[in-house]
Amino acid sequence: MEVRLEKNDAATTYNDCNYLSAVSSTEHSGFTCGTTSATGSGSGWTADATVLYDLDSDGKGEYFWDLTGSPKI
User: Fold this and answer.
1) Confidence check: pLDDT of 17 > 80
2) N or C: lower Cβ tally within 10 Å for the chain?
3) Is residue 27 part of a domain?
């Protein structure tokens, strides 16, 4: 998963989180992934994320799921 903090649709900071071993070894959900903080004046701040997943043995390869970003603040 990649999470991004954006100002006017341009990424100012991001973080990549790899949950492969955690997801493969547990039945729990609720994993978190965050970025470092960013500063700037004015409005136009949003956050969004992209999830990359691959269902084991389905033969279809990787999928990208773009999550809807937050409203601008």
Assistant:
1) yes
2) C
3) yes
Residue 7 placed within a domain: yes
Query: How does pLDDT run across 46-67, given as a tens digit for each residue?
Result: 999 999 888 878 889 889 999 9
Q: Are 66 and 37 in contact (CB under 8 A)?
A: no
Enclosing domain of residue 58: 2-39+46-67
Query: Does residue 17 sit within a domain?
Result: yes
Position 21, amino acid: S
H/E stretch holding 3 reads strand 2-7
Residue 50 maps to a domain: yes
| Radius of gyration over every alpha carbon of the chain, rounded to an integer in angstroms | 15
- pLDDT band, residue 14 (cuts 50/70/90): very high
